[in-house]
Structures are given as structure tokens and as C-alpha cells.
């Protein structure tokens, strides 16, 4: 939602800004219960459940990264074979979590706007490949190509919208109007790439589906999903928190000694509050081809569309392992693919929750695990899904884990052209080419406002650069060609490869795009270097305000890369901006995947203005 998620070390977690873990973690270990509520009776998966109970208990009890509560459910066919909650729904109240305790599932919520769109297609109200301006004639942007954006682009992260409207995204009180605010913000924004050119995780696309639903049905998105999806699926413990709930059991963040309730106001992109058992009803409908308990919710064709690989026609796609669906993160889940099984996956994170949802349609099997605070949800989910498939005979053995130790050194290609500065949506990298053919990779660090060493890497026999002390490896990829407008492009990316989750498959993403120096900053922009700016128009209940203390943003420069300014703070992260005029700073990179996800224009009303605007957020000079 920013993944409503980002976890740099895991590389692929994708839908929140920088808050996961701010849960008063040090206070949890002493008060967590040693067991949980288990609603499981007879089951065909005793070994998998025992393993899951062990993994979950370890996560909840880990003093280095305590977790208040974790809840899980698993379904086979039309029967839930395991549901259990471990830990505390309320830390100060010492109230145990139960299978009925609701968690914010973050970007797993993206499956619901995808389903809503498929239902609208079934009803003849929209088509996936019609430009959305037909349904939203008031939608506009500064880049004229906005008129090419379709609903398919919105649902497959290929729209070119800037990324995430950060204003009032996560709050401790409900804030209405987020989707309309996002549409108004986009009217003053440029596209970051042409629609359909590449796929980069984009929350704003799903938020715009809210506006389409409202325009063609007259119902708010929350009301439409409730009547068309949640009610017929009997998801009675699921809803969007559009107001303070009057009843129900909720997992509640415990922040700096205060218990609060998190509200995610971007409903379509990450706002559903649910339980694992409720989500098993959704899973049954998905692998049931749109039917749940004899009632058709959506057409079989709609479910199939959601499960189709949407990356086949992208112009720029240096990471073919990641196969976006409509709403799904991947419709060829890598660890399951390594075992010869087709699986669909969606993960989700908010400021305080982390969730993984797996569906194996051919086996009529699904699992969801969700928890409050920092833990490796993907590792648990992958481990358990593969264990279950082995236990029921779908696979004869687990796939081999991929290597995370460096192979032998080898003679590598010339790397002089690969040296330089690589920008992204997080913080820049610096690549230094050493005389012996090795690389040094540094990353810009906010605490020192300088370069911090990531590591030294040697070319190895598998074609990647490795360090003996890092399980990640790196290389460079150049993507060139002509875009849909006929313009030539040539991008060099720094690629990072990791083995996330349970370690059964490599995943690769570009983490930075090489940038060329520009003409020196003019006097107006040079005078902004070193200035600080504070956010003025977030709700007082916004998580960055309450938890981070509204950290100031600041302008800086990199001596190694003339002509750009570096702007950001602990909340926004740190991006290289291209001065377009004395009143506009533009986006500098075009990166598929996750590391170009939340980019922005910076606007000033005049060259000497003392306020600046990023999306719909307004900052005042300190």
C-alpha cells in the first residue's frame, strides 16, 4: 500500500509502507500464551497440522521478533480440515485469539476488486479491455496516455499509475473518501510508464476499481462487495472497516504501550478485515469455478481470467518467474511450480499485519495464514502447502531447495559499463567495478546521508555475482527495444536474486535502474538542497503521524550523480527526482516488479514556494 507491503530482505513482499514491527514487540514475549484455540477435529493432514502448530508456536514465541497472534485455516474440497489461532488478540487485556478473531489481511484484499470486476463483466456493465474513461469520464491525468488505461491494466499492475496515494492510507480512526481523493490526486500526476508496458506493483490501480464499481452500479465498493460476494459466500466475519466496529473479535495492534485498532482506508487495495475460515469459503468458490454451495457467484470464465498469466505481452519484463494474474501476485507459484503443481498466491501486509493465501485449484486445496506483527508468513505457508500436498499424495516428494551458498568463482564479463548509480523507489544503489572483476555494492543510508556497504561480490559459475557472506546474488540485465509509441528505450537494471519463503525456488527482481548524469541543478533547485519539509494534511490518527512522529522529508544530492535531487523520509523512502522545471520534479526510473512501485511527482506552486505537493499530500517547509 504502499503493500499494502514492503520487506526489503525478502524482496517480494509488496503491499505496506515502513511500519511492520511497530507493535510494542519487546512487551509481548512475557504475556503470550503457550497454546492456541484449535477447532480441528478429524483430518487427513495430521503431519502437516502438527508441523504447522510447531512453526506457528515458534513464530509467536520468538523473542527477537515477537508476534501477538497468528491464525490459520486449511481447506480440502468443501471441508475446512484445520483452523487454529495462537497468541493474543489483545495484549494488555490478555485476551486469547480464537478462529473467529478478525485480522486485517492487507493486499490479499485485492482479490475482491478482481472478483467485483469479473461480476461486472458477467453483468455486461464493463469489459476488461475497454479504456476506463468510458466508465469514469471524469478520470484524467497529466500524461495523455492515461486514456489507454483499461480495467485489465488496473488489476494486473500494468496501468502506469504512480503507485500509492499515501495520504490517510493507514490510520487509527476510519477516514472516508480515500478512493475519491486518489482520483483527484491522479488528475495532477503523470504516468510512470505507458499502460501495458510493464508490471510494477501498484495499489492505486485497485483503488480506481472502487470508482468504477461506484460509477456503473451506483453502490459504494464496500456495499457492492458485501452484497455480491461476502454475503453469498457466508463470510460473516469479514467486512471493510468503514466505521468503528460495534461488535466482533479483532486482533488489535499494541503500539508504544497503547492498544489501537488499525483502519486501512484503501478498501480495494488492502482494506478487508477477515478470518482464515471465512477466506476458505472464498477458496472453495475459486476452485469451484465461481460456485459456492450450489450458488454461482461469478462465471467460471471470470475465475479463469483471474488465473491467467497477464505478463505475456509486456514490453519490459526482466523477471519472468513472477506471473501476475488479475488480483493474484502469481498464478504460477514458484515453490509449487518446482514441485510440478500449479498454484495461485496472494500475499498482504498492512502497518501491523502479514498474510499469505495459497490456492491449489487442481487439488481443491487452500491455506491462509495471517498474523499481527513481523513473522515470515510466506515461509510458513509454503512449507505447509507443500507438506499437505505430499501428505495427500499429490506430490511424491518435496522439491529440492535451491542453493544459497556461492558456487565456484569463474571468469566474468566486463563490468565497467555496469558501474554507477541505480535509482529505485526505496533508496539508491551504488555499484563500483573493481580491477579484479569483482563488484562492490553500496546503498544510500538515511542515518549517515551517505553510502553504506551492502557487500563485495565475485562472478561465479552460475552467471551471478556472489558474496561468501550473503545468500542473495546479483547480476545486470539490459532491456532495449521500442515502446508502443515507437520510442526506443535501453535500460540497465541491477538484478537481485533470493530464495524467499521456504527456499524451494529463486525469485529475481530488478532493484535499481542505472541513471546517467544530467546537467547541473539550476539555482532554484540548488537552493532546495538541505531544506526540510513536514506533512501537513494527514489525519492526526494516521500511522506515520502517531508511530513515526511525522518525520520530516528533506532534499539532498549525490556527488556521484549530478543533476538529480534525492527526496524522502522514513515514511516515503528516498527517491531520485529529475527536475523538469522550477516547479516540477519528475520520476527518474522505470522499474518492473516491486522497486519502482511507489514513485511520485513533486510540485511547487512557484519557484520560491514554501509548500510542496506529493500526490494528495501537502508538505510545508520547516
Automatic annotation (TrEMBL):
SUPFAM superfamilies: beta-lactamase/transpeptidase-like (SSF56601). Residues 65-387 form the Beta-lactamase-related domain. Pfam families: Beta-lactamase. It comes from the Bacteria. This is Beta-lactamase. It comes from Caballeronia grimmiae.
Amino acid at each position: 500500500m504502499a503493500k499494502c507491503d514492503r520487506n526489503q530482505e525478502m524482496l517480494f513482499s509488496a503491499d505496506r509502507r515502513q511500519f511492520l514491527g511497530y507493535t510494542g514487540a519487546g512487551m509481548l514475549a512475557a504475556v503470550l500464551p503457550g497454546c492456541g484455540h484449535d477447532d480441528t477435529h478429524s483430518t487427513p493432514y495430521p503431519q502437516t497440522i502438527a508441523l504447522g502448530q510447531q512453526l506457528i508456536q515458534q513464530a509467536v514465541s520468538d523473542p527477537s521478533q515477537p508476534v501477538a497472534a497468528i491464525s490459520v485455516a486449511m481447506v480440502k474440497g468443501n471441508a475446512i480440515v484445520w483452523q487454529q489461532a495462537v497468541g493474543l488478540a489483545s495484549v494488555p487485556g490478555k485476551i486469547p485469539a480464537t478462529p473467529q478473531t478478525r485480522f486485517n489481511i492487507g493486499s490479499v484484499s485485492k482479490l475482491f476488486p478482481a472478483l467485483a470486476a469479473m461480476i461486472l463483466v458477467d453483468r455486461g456493465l464493463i469489459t476488461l479491455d475497454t479504456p476506463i474513461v468510458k466508465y469514469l469520464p471524469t478520470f484524467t491525468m497529466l500524461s495523455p496516455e492515461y486514456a489507454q488505461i483499461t480495467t485489465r491494466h488496473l488489476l494486473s499492475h500494468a496501468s502506469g499509475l504512480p503507485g500509492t496515494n499515501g495520504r490517510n492510507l493507514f490510520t487509527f480512526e476510519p477516514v472516508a473518501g480515500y478512493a475519491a481523493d486518489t482520483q483527484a490526486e491522479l488528475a495532477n500526476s503523470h504516468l510512470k510508464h505507458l499502460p501495458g508496458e510493464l508490471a510494477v506493483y501498484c495499489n492505486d490501480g485497485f483503488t480506481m476499481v472502487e470508482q468504477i464499481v461506484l460509477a456503473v452500479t451506483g453502490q459504494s465498493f464496500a456495499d457492492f462487495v458485501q452484497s455480491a460476494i461476502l454475503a453469498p459466500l457466508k463470510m460473516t466475519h469479514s467486512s471493510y472497516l468503514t466505521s468503528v466496529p460495534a461488535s466482533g473479535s479483532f486482533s488489535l495492534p499494541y503500539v508504544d504501550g497503547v492498544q489501537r485498532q488499525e483502519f486501512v482506508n484503501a478498501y480495494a487495495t488492502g482494506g478487508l478485515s477477515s478470518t482464515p475460515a471465512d477466506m476458505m469459503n472464498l477458496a472453495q468458490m475459486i476452485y469451484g469455478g465461481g460456485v459456492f454451495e450450489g450458488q454461482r457467484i461469478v462465471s467460471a470464465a471470470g475465475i479463469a481470467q483471474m488465473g491467467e498469466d497477464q505478463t505475456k505481452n509486456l514490453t519490459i519484463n526482466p523477471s519472468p518467474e513472477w506471473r501476475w494474474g488479475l488480483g493474484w501476485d502469481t498464478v504460477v507459484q514458484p515453490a509449487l511450480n518446482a514441485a510440478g503443481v500449479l498454484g495461485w498466491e496472494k500475499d498482504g501486509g498492512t502497518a501491523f499485519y502479514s498474510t499469505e493465501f495459497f490456492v491449489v485449484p487442481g487439488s481443491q486445496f487452500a491455506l491462509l495464514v495471517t498474523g499481527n506483527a513481523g513473522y515470515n508468513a510466506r515461509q510458513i505457508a509454503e512449507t505447509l502447502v507443500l507438506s499437505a500436498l505430499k501428505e495427500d499424495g499429490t506430490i511424491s516428494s518435496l522439491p529440492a531447495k535451491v542453493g544459497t551458498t556461492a558456487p565456484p568463482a569463474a571468469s566474468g564479463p566486463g563490468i565497467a559499463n555496469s558501474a554507477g548509480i541505480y535509482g529505485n523507489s526505496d533508496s539508491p544503489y551504488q555499484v563500483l567495478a573493481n580491477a579484479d572483476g569483482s563488484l562492490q555494492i553500496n546503498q544510500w543510508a538515511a542515518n549517515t546521508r551517505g553510502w553504506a556497504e551492502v557487500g563485495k561480490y565475485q562472478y561465479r559459475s552460475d552467471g551471478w555475482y556472489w558474496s561468501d557472506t550473503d545468500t542473495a546474488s546479483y547480476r545486470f540485465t539490459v532491456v532495449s527495444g521500442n515502446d508502443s509509441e515507437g520510442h526506443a528505450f535501453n535500460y540497465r537494471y541491477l538484478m537481485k536474486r533470493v530464495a524467499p519463503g521456504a527456499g524451494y525456488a529463486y525469485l529475481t527482481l530488478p532493484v535499481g535502474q542505472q541513471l546517467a548524469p544530467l546537467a547541473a541543478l539550476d539555482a532554484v533547485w540548488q537552493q532546495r538542497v538541505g531544506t526540510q519539509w513536514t506533512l501537513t494534511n494527514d489525519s492526526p490518527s494516521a500511522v506515520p503521524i502517531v508511530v513515526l512522529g511525522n518525520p520530516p522529508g528533506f532534499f539532498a544530492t549525490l556527488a556521484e550523480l549530478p543533476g538529480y535531487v534525492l527526496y524522502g523520509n522514513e515514511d516515503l523512502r528516498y527517491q531520485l527526482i529529475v527536475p523538469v522545471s522550477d516547479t516540477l520534479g519528475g520520476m527518474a526510473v522505470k522499474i518492473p516488479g516491486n522497486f519502482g512501485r511507489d514513485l511520485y511527482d513533486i510540485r511547487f506552486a512557484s519557484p520560491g514556494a514554501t509548500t510542496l505537493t506529493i500526490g494528495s499530500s501537502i508538505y510545508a517547509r520547516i
